[in-house]
Amino acid sequence: LESQLRVYQSTATNNRLMIRAAGRYRLAENFDFFLGGAWLPLMNPFGNENRFWQQWVYNQFPFEFLQLTYRLRMEQRWIENLDPVF
Fold first, then answer.
1. 9-55, pLDDT tens digit by residue?
2. Given 38, 76, 78, 85, which is the most exposed site by the fewest CB atoms within 10 A?
3. From start to end of the chain, where are the E strands?
């Protein structure tokens, strides 16, 4: 579970809060799969945004003092009250 406050200097209406939760499944000692969702309340002017996401993480340990992490994340977004543009 994590939260992020995104603050922009241009206008206060662009500021937003993201609340993200996920579950992790360890596929191998250095390979994890995450499945989760995120909620961004009151993303002006559209309303609330919901995200469903998947993430794969691979950790590589080439040396004792160094760890490399590779991350691939895919997100699907739903925004309330948004009129599609065709």
1. 666 566 778 899 999 999 999 999 999 999 888 765 667 788 899 99
2. 85
3. 2-6, 16-28, 31-43, 47-63, 66-79
The span from the CA of 77 to the CA of 36, in Å, is 12
Q: Which of 74, 80, 73 is nearest to 49 (CA)?
A: 80
The candidate with the shortest Cα–Cα distance to 38, out of 53, 25, 23, 24, is 53
Write the CA distances from 77 to 9, 12, 34, 37, 38, integer angstroms.
25, 23, 17, 10, 9
Q: pTM of the full predicted structure?
A: 0.71
The tokens 């995104």 sit on which residue? 6
